[in-house]
Queue: 2 jobs
Job 1
Amino acid sequence: MTRPDWHYPRKPFTHDTFVALTRGPVPAMSLFGPRRTGKTEFLLHDLGHHAADRYGHRVLYASFWQSSVAPLGLLLYAVSEALRPRSYAERVADWLRHPPVKVRIGSDKGPGALEIDLSERRTARLGQDLLLLDDLLGQLADRDKPAILLLDEVQELATAPGGGEIMAGLRTALDRRRDGLKTVFTGSSQIGLNRIFSTRDAPLYRFAAPLTLPPLGPDFVAHQLEVFHAVFQRRLDPATAQGFFDRFGGNPMAFQRWLMTLGQYRELPEDVAAERTATALAHDLDFDRIWLELQPHHRAMARILAEGDHDPFGATGAARFEALTGQPAPIPQTRQSHVRTLARRGLADQWDREWRLTDPLFEAWVLDRPEAEI
Ligand SMILES: Nc1ncnc2c1ncn2[C@@H]1O[C@H](COP(=O)(O)OP(=O)(O)OP(=O)(O)O)[C@@H](O)[C@H]1O
Ligand SMILES: [Mg+2]
């Protein structure tokens, strides 16, 4: 039996992004998508796979999420690994593992080989390391088949030690090889991405064309139900499946968890499986603790953002605040400061000028809370 492939290929989006990246006028794109909606999956299994396996481009991936690893060390490691001959599948397996502590950069033996400790901050060597990065990127650049750099969770760079210098060094190195190196940066915080690409004095200011990950839809649901049938020999009602998918804001991860619950417990009715999945997800993602750590006025503002029906700082938002808390609503500036607190904790984000909760799963969970809990 062949291994079931749960990956739903985002074909048109992959094709368009690949073409724009390799043949368009811009050397980079910044891809935004809310938490857990498939950015990393798209980078690794759609775009990266398409570029490497189908068209023979060199592809590298690095995620700045792992705060235990100094970002510049991680970049040096990623670029030097990309220069070694390996299959794309082997590379993906490596990227998904945690990077080793000590790594060898450059050729395995002889001059140019360098061993570095990825946990070390190496701030004293920042200048030398940036030169090394520039040199390695120069080796990777290819005008005929541009190398594709997939840099995930890039908003973390903005706050990392030496982040400004690293971004400036990266920009210079990438700018010098606009035809030979193409980059996709991703982030799950619009505010974080803006800080990097839309702030006038930021090193990567306007370096990347913004791109939004399209939401998954009924085709994804139909695809997953087919795989489910192939694996578990069981058909699920498409309308019920679509209902669950919509309830969780079209989230692929929640949907797959629901399918796994149904696969494991055959007798479980679909709605009971839905409740169980919701509870298990909330537990894994620690939503209870996050909620309890918020003050009632923060919770009220979170709820108002989740509902999305009122202007949070206007009169309708004020009325909703009063209904939720039984207290008079504070002035708009105070409500704004509550929302900024949510943003600082990574819970709220601003897209197209509108405030929302960052994580669609948290949003669905907040909407499920009884109002009295605020
Ligand atoms: N195209 C897809 N086909 C099948 N499953 C998918 C797809 N996209 C996402 N998923 C499922 O959703 C999960 C979350 O996706 P992923 O980790 O790529 O999201 P993300 O946007 O990078 O999240 P984060 O904001 O946490 O970085 C994946 O582990 C996978 O199970
Ligand atoms: Mg990710």
Note: The longest helix spans residues 39-54.
Job 2
Amino acid sequence: MPKKLKSRKRPARIAVGESGVHGRGVYAMQFILKGTRIIEYTGERVSWEAAPNDENDPHTFNFGLENGEVINPEIGGNNARWINHSCDPNCEAVEEDDRIFIDAIRDIEAGEELFYDYALEIDEPITEESKKKFACRCGSSKCRGTMLDLEL
Ligand SMILES: C[S@@+](CC[C@H](N)C(=O)[O-])C[C@H]1O[C@@H](n2cnc3c(N)ncnc32)[C@H](O)[C@@H]1O
Ligand SMILES: [Zn+2]
């Protein structure tokens, strides 16, 4: 029987910092192996209709689920909310049982910013104007110029 017992905090795998793409972003603090489940996108679940939205503001934290609900990280959210979009991402958002997880789809080196493809959906036809409103600044050679999902 041990005389002393303590829990051990693992070193942080990710951290929030200033992003070269937009505002704050999330960075790997250590090597992350392809396939690693990095973090859950947490927050309050609300209906799409009740989700906070300013239609003139392309800045969004709402994450849409297949069941029509939206995760709003302003209540109960974590650092996943700061992960930026890239058209050539190193992570993907995976939905399982109405939960969203961010998984590494490539090996990620310490110091790299984490990105997933937002594939944003809007409730109107995509136009050149809406593509510009949701313009992407990921800077990758595969950049499609917008954070909108063009494959709908
Ligand atoms: C969930 S927030 C990500 C955190 C954000 N960087 C911040 O500091 O608030 C999503 C918003 O960040 C911005 N953003 C993320 N990735 C971007 C990109 N590749 N190009 C342009 N804006 C981006 C957009 O305004 C988007 O709606
Ligand atoms: Zn892009």
Note: Strands lie at 14-18, 24-28, 37-40, 44-47, 63-64, 69-72, 84-85, 91-96, 99-104, 115-116.
